[in-house]
Specification:
Elements (H helix, E strand, L loop, with lengths): L14 H5 L8 H15 L8 E6 L4 E6 L2 H16 L5 H16 L8 H24 L11
Antiparallel strand pairs: 1-2
Length: 148
Amino acid sequence: MNEDKTIPEEQFIDAEAMFLTGKEKLNFQLIALLHLKKITTLCTVEWHGGYFNEKTFSNYTEKFYIMNSRDCFWNAIFCLYDLCYPYFDKEMKEADKVIQKELTKLPDAKIGKASQFNPRMDCMRKLFRELSCFLKRADYFKTKQREE
C-alpha cells in the first residue's frame, strides 16, 4: 500500500474497456479505430505459417491448429479495406487500382513459402499504408466522434 498520499498508486488500465465503456455510440469511427488496434496487435507478433501442434497429457494426445499469423494480418487488412471501401475518396480509389493490379500479379500458391512472402507482404503493407492515409484524410483520428 502506498503510504505517501502525494504519489498515486500504479494502476493497470484495460485498453478494451477504455474504448468501450457502454456510453459510446457505435459508429464507423469507433469501428475503424478498434480495427486499427487489432491490426496493430497482429503485426507485432512473429509471423509464421499455420501448423498443427500436439500436446500430450497422461493418457491422451490433443492435436490443435496454430493459425497462420500472416493470413490473420492480411485478412484484417482486407476487412478494414472492405469497411472503408464505400467511403473511398478519389486518391484512395487510384491507389486501390494500383494495389489490386499488383495483387493479381502475385502467384496464387501457399503463402508459407519464403519466395512468396515478401512480394505479398510488401503489397499488404502498401495497402495498409494507403488505408491509414485515407483514414487520416477523412479525419477519423479526431478524438471527437463523428456523426454518420
